[in-house]
Amino acid sequence: MKARSLTRREFLASTSATTIATVTSPVLPLAASVTRTAGKPAILGGEPVRKNRPWPDWPYIDDQIVDAVVKTTRSGIWCRIQSASGTVPTFEKEYARLMGSRFCVATGSGTQALHTCVEALGIGPGDEVITSPYTDPGTIASILSARALPVLADLDPASYQLDPDDVERRITENTRAIMPVHMMGQPCDLQRILALAKRHHLVVIEDAAQAHLAEYQGKKLGTIAPLGCFSFQSSKTIACGEGGAVLGDDEALMDKCYTVHNHGTNRAGRTECIGPKYRMNEFEAAVLLAQLAGAQERFERRNRNAAYLTSRLKGFPGLVPQKLYEGTASGSFYLYAMSYQQAHFDGLDRARFLKAVAAEGVGLSPYIERGLHREPWVDHIAQSRAYQKMYPAGRLRRFREEMCCPRCDQVCAEMVMLWASGPLLGSQADMDDVADAILKVYEHREALRSI
C-alpha cells in the first residue's frame, strides 16, 4: 500500500506539541518556519532558504593549535620515544582522563588502533571476528591485517547498527571476537552484544572511531568493553588529520597493545612479539592536546543542535532520524543521519530530493554507497592463496555464500545525512534552515519530480 503523505496542516499538528515538549531552549513556532518556506523551490527559480551564509568550518583551528605545533617543531622532540613527557605520552594521559579510562595507547590511525587490539588479543589465521558491513573499510582492514576472517552481520535498519540477533546467528566454533561499530557516533545495542559475547566466551572490541565523548548507560563509548578504539582523522569531532587511540582498564592487556604498536618492543625495550610500527607522532598529539579543553563544549553544542533539529522533524514520516537505543545519554554526532522514506514524498526519489535541498543552501548527502558485503575484497579473500592455506575450502565457500545483508542494503538506499562535525556547531537558526529546506522540498514534491 502506498504511504499517505502528510498535508501541511497535518504536519503542523503532529509536530508542534512535540517540538515544544522536546526542546528547552526557545523554539521558533513551526507555523512561522513554514511561512519562510513559502514560494517556488530554488531549483525551479525561487529564492533559497539559505543564501550566502557559510557553515562553521571543520576541522577546528585556533591559535592554541597553531602555537602547539610551532612549539613542538622548535622543541626538536618529534617522536614519542624521544621523551617520556612529550606530547604523545601527555595526550595519552589526558585523553584517558577525559574519557574515564585507566590507560591509553595513541596510534597513527583508527585502523591501526583496531589492528593493534586484534594482534594484542592473539587473534590470527583460522580465527573469525564478527563486525558490521556498514562502516569504513578500516574496520575490516584491522581484521584482515591479522589474517583473520571478518564475518559481516546485518543491521537494525532503524539504528544503522549491528543487529545482535544476526550476530549470534553467525557465531561459529572459530569466532574469537565481536567488533561492533558505534555508527554516526551513536551507541550500538552494546548491552545485548556484551551479553551474547559473555554467553559465547568472546571478547568485544568497540570501534568507537566516530564516537568521541558519547555516553551509554553512564559510561563513555570506547570504555565499556575490554578495549575501545578511536580515530582522529580530520573529519572526526576530535581531529588531527590522522591518528587513533586504544583505551582500556586492564593494565596487562594495554601493555600488550603498547608492545604491538611499538613494532613488538615492550616498554622496557625488549622485542618480544610480532608488531608493526603504529606510533602516533608528536605533531598529531600537539594538535589534539591543544583542542581537548574545548572538546566538551563543542560536544554539548552538537547535542543541543541535534536535539533541536530532531524536534523539528519529529512526527514527519518523510525523514526519520536515527533510532537511539535505551541507555543512550548523548552521541558525538559525527553525522546527523536520517532514513529517507520515498513513499511519503509521493515517489520523489532520493537523488532529486538531495538536489532540491542543495539548491536551498543545505547540503545533505548519502553516506556509504554500498555495504562492505558488496565490495570486491570478498572475492579477493575467497580466492586468496594465503587464505586458502589458512582456511578450509568449505569455510571460504560459506563465507562467500553467506555475504548477504539485505537490511544493510536498505540503509544504504535510504540514508540521508548532514556532515555534522562543523555544521552542528552552528546556531539554532542554522538548524531551522536545515528543517525549513526539507519542509519546503516536501511541500513542492510533486513539482520536483520533473527535475
Task: Explain this structure.
By secondary structure, the chain is of the alpha/beta class. It folds into 2 domains: 8-59 and 295-368 and 411-448, Alpha-Beta Complex (Aspartate Aminotransferase, domain 1); 63-291, 3-Layer(aba) Sandwich (Aspartate Aminotransferase, domain 2). Helix content is 41%, strand content 13%. The strands form 4 sheets. The protein has a 7-stranded mixed sheet, with helices on both faces. A 3-stranded antiparallel sheet has the order 9-8-13, with no helix packed on it. α4 packs parallel to α10. The longest helix is centred in the middle third of the chain and has 32 residues, at 282-313. The model is unreliable at 1-36 (pLDDT under 50).
Derived from helix and strand composition plus strand pairing, the structural class reads: alpha/beta
- Provide the CATH top-level class of the largest domain: Alpha Beta
Helix content: 40-55%
The overall average pLDDT, rounded, is: 92
Unreliable stretches = 1-36
Shape: globular
N- to C-terminal distance: 26 Å
Annotation, overall tally of beta strands: 15
Name the CATH superfamily assignment of the largest domain.
Answer: Type I PLP-dependent aspartate aminotransferase-like (Major domain)
Largest sheet, described in full?
A: 7 strands, mixed
CATH architecture of the largest domain: 3-Layer(aba) Sandwich
Total domain units: 2
The total of helices stands at 17
DSSP strand content: 5-15%
Biggest sheet: strands side by side, in what order? Answer: 1-11-10-7-6-2-3
Query: Do you know the CATH topology of the largest domain?
Result: Aspartate Aminotransferase, domain 2
Q: How large is the radius of gyration?
A: 23 Å
